[in-house]
């Protein structure tokens, strides 16, 4: 039986009569509350020995023992004198709680973890601040409040870096739809799949050893911080319908760190889009986008020597490629087609790619190498300090847009060279060219190296089978040659040098050639539209073409030579089907156009000389040119050009020369020098040997 001490009287409790005298021999009756039914009281807390009823007081009016009441019962007490005359009545008297028992009961209730009505459910909560309860706040229990926040530690995770917390993570994912990972290092030593949404708190990290995969199939949220520490073949995967974008910092990449390649590559493997922040990411090995449908994106590429204004990836060394797009090796055809095997849709965007060491020439290192890829895109990428800044081979439908190529440092270990943009044409992918439908749009190249200015520094290079290559508004400055088109003239296979289109090029301050065409094969076809060719003082020719049995058309554009350069406009040697279609050659001092050993060419330049004098001729057919049509526009200041058109020697035959558009006032000796054939002035139309003279001759 459980009893409680009476609140009315205890051992030795003294009672008095109405006169204030001790109630000697008084009688204390006990009843059930509100009744006259006797109720038992007890002499001790044991509840085993009953008091007499009534209790008889001693001579001093005191109780002989303690009075203990039955738990949960209430009593009525009646006090009478020795003659049984009632002095007072006290009703509804409960027992006094045992303090320790009360404490124990309270503790037990608050410590209860199995009854949702106890524990934290016994504590009230209302959202407040330092000024008090917030207006409109709703009263809840602490239990309800804590349910707002579920962490993996609620399921036994330790986070000490050595305990295997995989089971705790799995239990949390099975029990709730979302949970938080508090700060700590959580070792995941066995593969798990987490369907719940996971939020990583600042300072939280998962250590994943080799052979272990952690698969997140729900949402995953983390700040720009390291949340994965992976060794060996350890791996993280995401459901891309839930999470497809994240920073490389999740894997430990850090701007200013010594080697971020492993972390960036792990991010690329796990995510569809990997983000890089402002700052310099140093790498000791190649960053590889060697998975399909991947994007690596930074915060900008136009670096101006200010820390943390753009994203830079910098190679620690002079030999490795900095970034590779596409697989490590050439894939085998799928269904008989290489196009089906190429890696699809890889994007590099808003990043500066360079190296912090001079490039090793013999390594043929690249800043960005695109290989065996289809629909790859380079957008706003700046590349510097490699032998090949942008290199393309075995690609289909790929592009570089608003990209910038630069070289300052001198190479080591061999004869230096530099190609800003290079299309390698000797990789057979079962198509006419090695890079089918390759687009270089609004791309720029700059060479700031004196040695390369003189030899080996080329802005754009199309090599071998360059079919289906398109350049929109390319721009160069300070290159030895702004562009080189090196075909494969010896080939007798189907067309591999067709459909090269160059629109609106700006080739400024080149040291040797604006465009150098070489070996464009018999199937070849090249179109250049509306270019600007600004030769430097040492330049040889704005356009040089040699050994090209294919056809090349240069339409429109201008070649200003106001700075005193001795460069020619066009120099053609052993070419067929070359067309000069109203290109403006402005104030040349050397021969604007000279051709040798050419067949079926159309020569229609615009030669204008107001400032400079030409002591030779505006157009010269030097030797063995046949079946060409020549119709220049020639004008300028009086007597600034010696001869309009000059056929040198007797080997030029079966050509037509139309002199109508030559202003005789610009010529020394006037109209008599419109046309000279084999040192003889020709002033009448008709046949002159095997050459046809047409147009107005005076």
Please provide a written account of the structure.
The chain is mainly beta and 698 residues long. The strands form eleven sheets. The protein has a 15-stranded mixed beta sheet. Strands 33-36-40-43-46-49-47-44-41-37 form a ten-stranded parallel beta barrel. It folds into four domains: 1-96, Phage P22 tailspike-like, N-terminal domain (Tailspike Protein, Chain, Beta Complex); 152-221; 246-330 and 339-414, Pectate Lyase C-like; 417-586. The N and C termini lie far apart (141 Å).
Question: Gist?
Answer:
The chain is 6% helix and 42% strand.
Keywords:
ten-stranded parallel barrel; 698 residues; 64 strands; 15-stranded mixed beta sheet; 4 domains; Tailspike Protein, Chain; mainly beta; single chain; Pectate Lyase C-like
SSE diagram, text form:
Blueprint: E1 3-6, E2 27-32, E3 55-56, E4 68-70, E5 75-80, E6 86-93, E7 95-96, H1 99-110, E8 124-125, E9 128-129, E10 132-133, E11 140-141, H2 142-146, E12 160-164, H3 166-175, E13 178-181, E14 184-187, E15 192-194, E16 197-200, E17 204-208, E18 213-216, E19 220-221, E20 228-230, E21 235-238, E22 245-247, H4 261-270, E23 273-275, E24 279-283, E25 287-289, E26 294-297, E27 311-315, E28 323-325, E29 343-344, E30 346-355, E31 366-371, E32 373-374, E33 377-384, E34 388-393, E35 395-396, E36 399-401, E37 404-407, E38 418-423, E39 435-436, E40 438-441, E41 444-447, H5 450-454, E42 457-463, E43 469-472, E44 475-477, E45 481-486, E46 500-503, E47 506-510, E48 513-518, E49 525-535, E50 541-548, E51 551-560, E52 568-575, E53 578-586, E54 593-596, E55 602-609, E56 614-623, E57 629-630, E58 633-636, E59 641-647, E60 656-658, E61 675-677, E62 680-681, E63 686-688, E64 691-694
Parallel strand pairs: 12-14, 13-16, 14-17, 15-18, 16-19, 17-20, 18-21, 22-23, 23-26, 24-27, 25-28, 26-30, 27-30, 28-31, 29-32, 30-33, 31-34, 33-36, 33-37, 34-38, 35-39, 36-40, 37-41, 38-42, 40-43, 41-44, 42-45, 43-46, 44-47, 45-48, 46-49, 47-49, 48-50, 49-51, 50-52, 51-53, 52-54, 53-55, 54-56, 55-57, ...
Antiparallel strand pairs: 1-4, 1-7, 2-3, 2-5, 5-6, 8-11, 9-10, 61-62, 63-64
